[in-house]
Amino acid sequence: MLIKAILLGLVSIVGVIDSRLIGRQNVGRPLILCTLTGLVLGNLKAGIILGASMELISMGFVAIGAAAPPNMQIGSIVATAFAIISGASKETALAIALPVAVAAEFIDILMRMIIAQFGHVADKAIDEGKFKKAQHIHVIWSFLLNSILYFALIFVAFYFGANSIKPIVNSIPTVITHGLTVAGNLLSALGFAMLLSTMLSKKLFPYFLFGFLVVAYSNLSLIGLTCFSVLLAFIMDKVNYGGKKAAK
Amino acid sequence: MEESEKKSIITKKDLRKVFFRSMTIMCSWNYERQMHMGFMYGMAPILDKLYADDLEEKKKAYKRHMQFYNCTPQLTSFIMGIAASMEEQNAQNKGEYDPESISMIKTSLMGPFAGIGDSFFQGTVRIITFGIGLSFAKQGSILGPLLAVGLFMIPSLLTSYYGTFLGYNSGNKYLTKMYQEGLMDRIMEFASIIGLSIVGGMVASMVDITTPIKFAAGGAKLTLQSILNQMFPKMLPLLFTLAIYYLIKKKINTNALLIGIIIFGIIIGALGIL
Hints:
Chain A has 248 residues and is mainly alpha-helical. Chain A has nine helices and no strands.
């Protein structure tokens, strides 16, 4: 149990590395972290399947700008681990993931406040000509702070929660599990709405509707839709800008 | 190697360092100046080299890159490339060059670049690659996570890597041209059309909201959902997404929304409406 708890803690650090050290290549998404969680606990397939449903509801959760979406990295690792060891369903896993993700978000907010103070230390270091120190504050201090917090969180949750999780999971009434499943589906709508809020404008609304209607009525796959969208983009580009060039 | 009036100090090796460092741009993200330390860290090898024998100039340069910064990680290396070429000019023409222009170009670029970059990488490429990955992952196939990340990394890493050199070599030239010809808006619109249409498709295929409401009509039992499926499939996902979008636009705090939605979901689920 101790070793598993440590390994799961390391899985959460993969998420930290993704955003902090490698420029968000998306290896820290729930799909990947749940897969790794499944691997650690010896049930890869369950990890992937649970990862797919976690990814689905958090598809639109991206930390763009100052928005702090629920921390589905922590939420999905904890939920996947508990679901695998207790044999809980996908629905129950979601019911665990959501509250954990919301709670973990506050740790992120706290962390971002602490790092703002690091910034002042770095300012001072530069004034004193300690350029290396300023660089270390960025890449070592901040990374360690985040890693230690996430590691501790997952370690404590798993190490102390693993034994008591089964009775807890079994005692969750179905009304709550069902309600949280409904909420999870609604949250995937929230995710997309958040994504839209950074992309959508009145002028662009028809394109959103275009993609929606094509898939709603024809069940076209995403790859198929992508091909049509690229074509549409080319056509609209010609319509909007083609004439201008000819006039030149 | 171009033989211009002044030899360039910055080498390919230096720029490669900038590329690697640009990936840590979000390492010290914070509420005050967001990615400011990340930009300083990325520029550090360049600044160390250019201002090796002038401590005061070096401090000023470091401080210049400690100002507020926020942009898509994948496009940051391009902006760092431009900043590197401008710092080089500044170092070579001491006193004649206005270093303020370096900060100016950074500030004027990060906004539109973040708009294009975020909607392209997180809004479009990620949605497509993870959409593909998910269809495998649902069946428990390891191809799911592998494809999702693998396919994402190709455009992501290529853009960051070549962006560094493009920014350094001809960033300024391209940018003036792009702004003059209004190319920026054009690229933005092109990417937005694809991105939005895919998000639309995702709402239809991935938001799973259905209603179990049943009623009897002339002896036959009907479910509301089957009628919806006939007339307007996926109407509920669309309505909910747009309603939440409207609330976000009304500046309702996303945390409040989140908790509200969870409570709403439990209640409406218990009532048997959804």
